[in-house]
Amino acid sequence: MSTQCEICGQQTDSNGCKYCGDVSSGEATIEIFWCADCNIPIIKAVGSIDRNICPLCNGNTSFVSVDMRPVFPEERLLIEILSGKPLEYLNKSVWASKNRYFIDGKSTPLITDSYRKKSPQKISEEMELYKERNTYTFFNENIQRFIKANKTRLDYICHEAFCFIEETSKNYSQECIVTSFSGGKDSTVTADLTIRALGNPSLVHVFGNTTLEFPSTIEYAQRYRENNPLAIFKTAINKEQDFYKVCEDIGPPGRMIRWCCNMFKTGPITRVLNSIYPDKEILTFYGIRKCESVTRSKYRRVEDDAESLKIHRQKVASPVFLWRDIEIWLYILSEDLDFNDAYRMGYDRVGCWCCPNNTLKAQFLSQIYMPEQSEKWRNFLIDFARKIGKPDAENYVDSGSWKARQGGNGVAAANDIKIRYTNCTTENNAKVYELNKPINDSFFELFIPFGIMAPELGRKLIKEVIIIDEKTKVPIISIQPFAQEGYEYSVKIRTMNVKKHDELQRTVGYQIKKYNACRRCLKCESLCKHGAISMTKNDYRIDSAKCMHCKMCVSTKNLDGGCLMERCLKTKV
């Protein structure tokens, strides 16, 4: 059955418009063509019947890429300096796609070694020298042609996003709708789309300041607050931890052990959301896009599965899930939105400036624009490499090998995750566990997930505490401070009235590990959907009034080895 497309007016069918493409289909639907006469990229739907025609001049176009982004004058000057041709492309249309630049539509590979030919300091000096002549005149004119030529595509993706936001949020009061603001281009577009779709400039925005943000991100977040005075803008920040001190303790994060995300991002955001919405389900719009990484390609546009969410008691949805880079920039530039200046400098993505997932290019840019921070981080990494026994510490760091680090080999803190125990010789199903510090009240609270704490049932003379099963009301765990030869601090744990003693003792071991190894990473706090777990300055606490005994915090399904530190500090023989 043929219908008329609401955006472009062309005839279409159940498969979607062949002019606009179908963002909601779940698959990438666009290709980029180049018009040599207009000197701009044209976004076309895959299989579009007019994909070889420029909508401005009606001239012929040719396929150029599946995605592109504009190269701003600041980055253009950088690549000119690297190639020894300052201002060579001042009046040319320059775009980029991954590791390639397109100069007036012609592909030029980015030579990785070019980043090493000149020192960051020398490049910075040259960029300052040409700064005044590096104008935006041609760039702005070229972008206006780009916007005009792609208006149909812009109208379509906006219309689809507005419909998506309205449909997804229809069962939520606007007080329970949140926009996740990272300071990046995708969250900028998501926030603007959400405000426009709902007609509400007073939505809650949560900005996760990891303390490792680019200076330009902090500046942009401040500008955003000033430009959106009606928005409820909350900043989530971990003021209790210092990134460098944690790195000294457990080692820097790596691609496979990014403890920093829980400690400095997810955890603080969870705290803010719990403080605003202690007993409510919320809907969060965020700027995740499928094409960003292999991991994100597995996400869904709307996610409400508790096991898949980093922060519970919320549904998350991304209006720009299927958008490409070029569509994000089409929206930003056409709407004249303010955005993070890091993109002008040449950064493809904005996050933590020292993230192990950053590219060589991003590292190089940071050496130019953040020389002091970059040097401090490099020196720290070299010192760490020497401490863990790397024979060529500088090469280990400069080659990026530190990013592939897994586990706690060479790190003293690795001993804290090793559970040491002896079987009790006087009682069945009892183990004596070694602790690395004296028992305090928080230790007993670690056993609340197993049942109800009943100290009155324990033998007072030996300071025994009993945990009873919530359903059967029979004792299942006995906790007894104990003196064990060879252990400075220890505790005896006995299991009783259960069928699988070994299984219960295994999960008991997870809690022992947490007591010994807890670095207040906030993972457990984020994991608990009932808000029962909290981290104080020195302790891991569980509120018995809030704990529902779901045992998510003692399940390997949610925490490998029962504790995030297991993954960070596990050693290989």
Notes on the structure:
With 573 residues, the protein is of the alpha+beta class. The protein folds into 4 domains: 3-112, no CATH class; 151-345, HUPs (Rossmann fold, 3-Layer(aba) Sandwich), CATH 3.40.50.620; 370-404; 413-569, no CATH class. It is 32% helix and 17% strand. The strands form 6 sheets. The protein has a 6-stranded mixed beta sheet with strand order 12-11-10-13-15-14. It has a 6-stranded antiparallel beta sheet with strand order 16-17-21-20-19-18, covered by helices on one side. A 4-stranded antiparallel beta sheet has the order 6-7-8-9. A hairpin with a 2-residue loop joins strand 8 (100-103) and strand 9. Helix 1 crosses helix 2 (120-130) and helix 5 crosses helix 9 (325-334). The longest helix has 18 residues, at 151-168. The relative contact order is 0.09. The model is unreliable at 5-10 (pLDDT under 50).
Short description:
With 573 residues, this protein is of the alpha+beta class. It has helices at 73-82, 120-130, 137-149, 151-168, 185-198, 215-227, 243-250, 259-276, 325-334, 342-345, 360-369, 371-387, 393-398, 441-445, 501-517, 523-527, 564-569; strands at residues 3-4, 11-12, 30-35, 40-45, 61-65, 69-70, 94-97, 100-103, 106-109, 177-181, 204-208, 232-236, 282-285, 302-303, 314-317, 421-423, 430-435, 452-454, 465-468, 475-482, 489-495, 533-535, 540-542.
Tell me the CATH topology of the largest domain. Answer: Rossmann fold
Radius of gyration: 28 Å
CATH architecture of the largest domain: 3-Layer(aba) Sandwich
- The total count of strands amounts to 23
Quote the beta fraction. 15-25%
User: How would a textbook summarize the main sheet?
Assistant: 6 strands, mixed
Helix content: 25-40%
Overall domain count: 4
